[in-house]
Amino acid sequence: MSDVIVQIYGIRTVEDARMVVGHGAKHIGVSYGHINHTPGQLSCEQAKEIFEGVQPEAVRIGLTCSTDIDEISEDLRAAMPDVLHLSGDIDGISPEQVAELKRRFPGLEIMQAIPVLAGVPLDEQPVMDYVRAYEPVSDFFLIDTKAPTAGDIGATGLTHDRAIDAAIVAATDVRCIIAGGLDEHNVTEAIHETKPYGVDSYTHTNYDDERANTLHCKDEAKVIAFCEAARNA
Q1: pTM exceeds 0.70, yes or no
Q2: For the chain, how many structural domains are there in total?
Q3: Which of 116, 136, 175, 223 has CB atoms 3.0–4.6 Å from 160's, for a disulfide?
Q4: Burial (CB count <10 Å: 0-12, 13-18, 19+), residue 209
Q5: DSSP string of 50-77, one letter each residue
Q6: Cα–chain-centroid distance for residue 42?
């Protein structure tokens, strides 16, 4: 049995939050903010309802794609998660600015997304430079696939070379959660290959039809399968 934690993203209702936690997810992820940056992003009021309504054992993750720390601070004052996930352009917020966010909000943990390009060797992209730069101010790394033309990191449904994940996990003491195209069919192998702190799913635990664009976007059968596969790895 694996002790790897499961993180489920794209939570848009209290009901879905409680559902995924009930099936074994430890982290629930909510994208929110008072300025819209991404499809499916919630308002601060909606995020606050989820953060206050989920079971107390859940770790509540708030995702932002903003690179303006004053904007992010306003969002945090309106709806405070346990962990802030910085998933915008990594070059848009310096480690010094991340440290300033932690100074403004004592006790807030930071999950820094680490962008990995699919099909590009590790030594041809700045992944390890980012790891070294953001280690001092990060409580978690979310290692995710970045589309070459996208400004933000993740939510692509695309996989990348898991050997890169393994190299990051081996190189840092920061807790690493792997993401990028994970589903119930490949998560077990990914855990064996990388030995991460946790695994993350967004795209492949959503419905495959128009319900993916609604508030109740999580497919319970897929959530159960993903959590079981991770737990049994």
Answers
A1: yes
A2: 1
A3: 116
A4: exposed
A5: HHHHS-TTSEEEEEE----HHHHHHHHH
A6: 15
Q: What does the H/E/C string look like for 108-154? A: CEEEEEEEEECCCCHHHCCHHHHHHHHHHHCCEEEEEEECCCCCCCC
Domain with 180 in it: what CATH number? 3.20.20.70
Distance CA 110, CA 139 (A): 5
Summarize pLDDT for 69-116 with one digit per residue, the tens: 999 999 999 999 999 999 999 999 999 999 999 999 999 999 999 999
Tokens of 130: 């980012």
- H or E element, residue 11: none
Q: What is the DSSP string of 146-190?
A: E-TT-SS---S-----HHHHHHHHHH-SSEEEE-SS--TTTHHHH
Q: Which domain holds residue 126?
A: 5-231
Evaluate whether 34 touches 75 at the Cβ level (below 8 Å).
yes
- pLDDT for 109-154, tens place per residue? 999 999 998 888 999 999 999 999 999 999 999 998 876 655 555 5
Contacts of residue 192, Cβ cutoff 8 Å, sequence gap at least 6: 233
Integer Cα distance of 131 and 146 in angstroms:
15
Q: What share of the chain is helix, strand, coil (3-state, %, to 5)?
A: 40, 20, 40
Helices (H) and strands (E) in the chain, counts: 8, 8
The 8-class DSSP code of residue 230 comes to: H
